[in-house]
Amino acid sequence: MREYSRLIHFESAGETFFADFPAAETALSIGISVRAHKIFEEWIKNENPLEVVVEKLLPPLPRSDLPIYCVGLNYRSHAKEAKLNVPMNPPVWSKPCASLASPEEEISMSRYCASNFPDWEGELVFVTSRECRDVTPDEAESCILGYTIGNDLSCRIFQMAEQNAGQFFYAKAFDKFAPIGPVLVSPDVFRVDENTKLTTRVNGQIMQDTQIARDRIFSPAQVLSFMSQSTTIPAYTAVMTGTPAGVGAFMKPKRFLRHNEVVEVQISGIGILRNKIVFPEEIRLADKPPEIKLDIIPSSYWDVMVSPELVEMTSTL
Questions:
Q1: How crowded is residue 43: how many other Cβ atoms within 10 Å of its Cβ?
Q2: InterPro entries under this entry (predicted)?
Q3: What pLDDT digit, counting tens, does each position of 263-294 carry?
Q4: What is the CATH number of domain 68-289?
Q5: pLDDT above 70: residue 206
Q6: Which residue(s) pair with 274 in the sheet?
Q7: Beta-bridge mates of residue 124
Q8: pLDDT of residue 116
Q9: What is the DSSP string of 246-312?
Q10: What pLDDT score does 26 carry?
Q11: d(CA 222, CA 210)
Q12: Which of 45, 81, 225, 261 is the most exposed place for a label (fewest CB within 10 A)?
């Protein structure tokens, strides 16, 4: 693998390109000109470079046709707010590749998703550099291509036991529910230390704010090692590594995403992943969460996740 600083994946004139964008250069923005390659393998070998203009950023992944792995309860603060025990092993599930979304992309939620308590989860993401199976944590370190940022968007109602037996996949697997970006930073450049912070803002308001090293339970290498036991993990797989405290479902009162809100996930040393949430016209409510049919919600759900303010709302859907 070639040495690099920050990998970007982008569109220009209807084609896609990969480029190394060193941190020492000018700020990454649409309209800049970079030395890029059409094919990732050409980027690795530094063959056939072209000077092109960045028109639209894409997820900084060599492949977009792989499932995205996710980890739950990997931050002590999140386990505490959820009133759950810290697990012995990281809970793992996946999102389909159709969940992938680009940095700065508008996330157009369907009526179905917008009306079932959409929530944010800012996360550190790593991407594998090669196929691996049965690796130790030490071996896993050499299997990581780089680090980026993700937002594990979730429709909270479908995480309840009464709805889907408590499993996570369905609640998180909707189209465009995995924004990732804006850059993939080399392990030679980015390392989590005591100063590395993860911050999530919704319309500028800080919702999540933690020092990753102090809060995190399992490191990326430990996560990858656990995932790979008796399981082949393909090269260029993206893995979301969990979220800290501050998700809307556990706020008092509860707080869910609304139409036209902008979610920003920032990790020091990587950058900011930014996406606007867009609801269908019939449920675009600027000042309160989406209203839903109360008769589809089991009574125990309200005790765990939903605020009294929502219970009192009159259904319009």
A1: 22
A2: Fumarylacetoacetase-like_C, Fumarylacetoacetase_C_sf
A3: 999 999 999 999 999 999 887 754 454 444 43
A4: 3.90.850.10
A5: yes
A6: 264
A7: 149
A8: 93
A9: --GGGSSS-----TT-EEEEEETTTEEEEEEEE--GGG--SSSPPP--GGGS-HHHHHHT--HHHHT
A10: 52
A11: 20
A12: 45
Residues of the chain with CATH 3.90.850.10: 68-289
Listing DSSP states for 150-200 in one string gives EE--EEGGGGSHHHHTT-SHHHH-STT-EEEEEEEE-TTT----TT-EEEE
* Bridge partners, residue 36, by sequence: 50
pLDDT tens-place string over residues 227-259: 999 999 999 999 999 999 999 999 999 999 999
| Nearest partner of 244 among 287, 223, 214, judged by Cα | 214
Q: Which of 67, 249, 69 is nearest to 158 (CA)?
A: 249
What is the per-residue pLDDT for 49?
97
The predicted-structure confidence for 34-43, as pLDDT tens digits, reads as follows 999 999 999 9
Q: Kindly state the DSSP code that residue 29 receives in the 8-state scheme.
A: -
Instruction: Tell me if the bond preceding 182 is cis, omega within 30° of 0.
Output: yes
Sort strands 50-53 and 33-36 into parallel, antiparallel or unpaired: antiparallel
Dump the DSSP string for 46-111: T-S-EEEE--EEE-S-S-SSSPEEEE-S-BHHHHHHTT-PPPSS--EEEE-GGGEE-TT--EE--H
Nearest to 152 by CA among 255, 72, 62, 51: 72
